[in-house]
Amino acid sequence: MQVDATVTDAQGNPAPDLKAGDFRVLLDGKPQEIKHCNYIRFSEAPKPSLAATAPVMDAKAATAAHPAMPAEPMHREDVRRTIALFVGDLLTSAESMPGIRAGLKKFVQEQIRPGDLVAVVRSSAGLGALQDFTPDKHMLMAAVDQVGWTPHAIGIGGASAYQQIGQPTLAGFLSLDLAQLDKIDSTERATLATTAALLQVVRGMADLPGRKSVIFISDALRLTS
């Protein structure tokens, strides 16, 4: 089992010189053997500002002169965390989407660190929802921009002032016969489709390196029928 710990001194500075003997890990009250203890430096030294060497230019000119460079290819041994940001848009209302997008952008901007491999996944993409994992924040921000309300026949994520009409379908998500479909309501159908896509993502992450996490974001998820 891998356990992370953030240790700082009285001034809040990282303590990089700790050894395995400085830690004690208990499981059900019993001390556990610590086989390895590694210090991982996430932050990088800031790069010199161009302000002192380059003339002032407006934002559009700066973008044209210095377009955003893609992230350097990451080697498997460099990956420390593999994270899937999974948005259950089939079970999420239109009102919630702006806040979800803002939260995702904040996470990408502030929480993604060197050594992270991240993907933004939407349940409405079905069983093909597993997108390419990338360390590139520009690509992740573009993926976040694709997250939105899904007026899909299978979903329940409607605008609150309107009642959804019509018969949802699970075509493309699950192989259930018509007799089974007639016995479940739209919420259960959306839940089945969401969990099917989520299972596909989890299985797809099995062979990826690093510690794996799935952050699930949704208005609702019915766990009982």
Describe this structure in words.
With 225 residues, the chain is an alpha/beta fold. It has 2 domains: 1-41, no CATH class; 79-217, no CATH class. It is 24% helix and 12% strand. The protein has 5 helices and 5 strands. It has helices at residues 59-65, 97-111, 137-145, 178-181, 186-204; strands at residues 25-27, 30-32, 81-87, 116-122, 211-217. A 3-stranded parallel sheet has the order 4-3-5. The chain has a two-stranded antiparallel sheet with strand order 1-2. A hairpin with a 2-residue loop joins strand 1 and strand 2 (30-32). Helix 2 packs antiparallel against helix 3 (137-145). The radius of gyration is 22 Å and the shape is globular. The two termini are 35 Å apart. 21% of the residues are buried. Residues 44-57, 62-69 and 158-173 have low confidence and may be disordered.
